[in-house]
Protein 1
Amino acid sequence: MAAQKEKKMDTMRAALKLGDVKEGEAFDRELQEQRKQERIFVREEKDRERREKQAAIEEEERRKEKEKRREAKDRKREEEEEDRKQRKREKKARHEKEEEDRRIDKLAKKRSTKDGERDRDHRDHHR
């Protein structure tokens, strides 16, 4: 019978989350103050840990944002460099085309002059 009563009390303590309670502790002011200070300490410790975790999360977010800005800056720099190289290639191609056109014009002019001389010589020869 006593064992049944004890088991029932243990079940009741567990249900009420009373833990290990002894008779008369509720009236011991020093013990109650000590437990109160322990609860305050535990709560403050949890708050401190929460603030530290939040600060770490915010720091990580700032670090990631900074990394994103750096990557964007690097991408922009690479794009500008590629644009510069492309403009340089295009300028070189235009210059080469102009040189080729000048050579062709020069050859055409030379041929034209030679043809003109040949025609003149041919006319002079047949006269």
Protein 2
Amino acid sequence: MPLKTRRALPLEEQVVIVSRPDQRAELKLVVTNTLIVADIQRSVAFYRDVLDATVLRDGQPTFLRLGNIWLTINRGGGPTDDKPEVVASPARDPKALSIFLNLRVTDIRRYYDLWSSRGAKFITEPKVHATELRCYMRDPDGYLIEVGQTTMTADPLALYT
């Protein structure tokens, strides 16, 4: 009995097949926050050594896990073919806010003391607000990081779990 040979699909058809996954599969999503920085190693050292982030992949870009989020640390550049008029660059004006990390904690005073002892530079000590205790620090590229403890519930993280 002769063997049947299959003709390979043209490259264009192979690309369509790869880009169209099984439509029955459950959709899943992972959110990462990408920070464009001036010095990848300096930023990774801050998130790893001060905030206890776990480095998942070294290099350019570097991937970290911080609590329940993933951070991508990368240098600037661009434009690219998929964003032809966009240039990625580190934060330029520390007085202008366009994005910030919001770290929700169980004991703001203990985190403030711990992270300060590791070199974090806070703008103020924790302040009392209507529904939370809150303070801010900056990372080495000037990105604002809010540290907050909710006071609306007995468990400060209950709203987030």
Protein 3
Amino acid sequence: MICPTHMTRRAHLAAFTTALATPLLAACGAGTATEAPRALDRTQRDELTWVVWSSDGGTRKEAYDAMVKRFTEQFPSVTVTRIAGGGETLEKLITMMASDTRVDVVGTRPDFLAAYMEGPKPLQSMSPFAKKDSAVIKEKDHAEGVVEGLTWKGALYALPVGVYTNNVALNLDLIEQKGIPLPKPDWTIDQALDIARRVTTRKETDDDSIWGFYQMYNAVTHFGYSWIRGNGGEPMTPNDNISKSQWATDPETLNTVQWLSDLAQKQGIMPVKTTGGVWGTFREGRVAIGVMETNNLYNVVQAQTTGGAQFRWDVHPLPTMKKGRYQPIGAFAYGLSRNTKNPDVTWELLKQIVGPSGQTDWFRLAKFAPSIKTLLNGAYLQDKDPPANKKAIVEAILAARPMPRSNQWVEMDKAIVAVLTTIREGTVSVREGLQDIDRKVTTLIGKK
């Protein structure tokens, strides 16, 4: 989900940071932590810089504004300047770190963490702070998978403001109109495809057709991973520091990608075209089984409350594959910059972002799920906004585990997505496409 970016005054930032005479309180090495927080002067003056992961507009901006408001109530003479990373957060951080531009709070994601910490190393370990000031932030309070994903070489570098994974959305009306009983939580992929075949109704155009199944599996690498790992496949190994690409040679990976391609190219229960992006035509009421990320689900609600197609829908667990289910963990996460000049006050801001108050702002406004387990099983589960079956989301988040990670992940993901798009379009065969992925990923593995 992409929102417009909001940029602040770079020139002002550079001039301000040059004027500061306070020495750095953190070393430049990965995992180096500053002195833990102590009693603070709440009248001090400063300006903190927060590099926001992705966008800072719409409901996300509302949530971030609420976090900053709480912080400035505690530190009225400390201002917070937010810089939206857009689609190039890592690239912006590389530039800022290289020029020693002040950064205090850094945005990241689990799949990007290796690229962060093996590259510009913009983060410092959170553990010393959390150990000495655990009133708000406690590592053990969070879903295990996201903590694992935000840990690199034994050090925890960030925690989420919100998390997401792959979820199924069901159009209950389309399924019931065909006289099909609603599936049980332990349904299988064969049962899902049987429903998809029975619901699919082809019309003059793909956009007007009723589709049984839809996923834009070529949008990001983790979309297809649920099916591949669900079948026991491993396209890239090991999970940390990828050293081998085997998309074309791992049998279950090859077979699963062929199966995904066949859903559109041969079985005709999913469109080849990706009209509607990650939602397809689900929001228009023309998809029975849609697979999308947790935060994308709310766009269905928005469409219906703004005059769009009206139909009953809800979330359901992913169907089980041969080896079970795989839920990839995703998150928008934040940590302490290694070149913050005011680590103790930055920690206070970070508590407002990734602590319970910040995660509550984020799930109510930005519609991600929280990673704090008491929130996930409490206020989030009981939230009255659609979808109703938040239990399916909660269980998926608690089961979610990290994707493979590499210092070259940014380029790997781009290369994989580009080739999967050609496979979906049918311009290359599955085997040829996966061989191309292996060549490109292997080349990237060789880069340091």
Protein 4
Amino acid sequence: MNFFFYLTWVLFLFVCLFLILLVLIQKGRGGGLASAFGGAGGNTAFGSKTGDVLTWATSIVFGIFLLLGIALNLLANAQHHAAVAAANGGAPVVTGSAEPGPGPQTAPPPTGLPPAVVGDTPPVEPKAPDAESIGVAPAPTTQPNP
């Protein structure tokens, strides 16, 4: 497994460097690096019809780049799971379980407030008393004058 991982890693690095050089060789709107190689006017460093070939080659190398990136991801995940299993004494790595836990755990209803600290003061009532229960008269309403 390590051999394939490092082989893929080395291939990925070579493809990255080749893709960088392939993009830099192409002629952009402003001439790009291709004009530094002697490409003047409508010509590039390697002839006048290389634009189509370089575009086609860039697409192929980009596809190889993507496939190697996916392969590296899969190999790295497999290597990681094997290392974790070896660290656990050969026990398989379980990411999720269908079996219930030690007992039912109920969570308090969401209030949008942080949880209370144990030993803290009792929670504050969620609603303030209305004006009539504390003996305050409501504010007079004003009518607009006609």
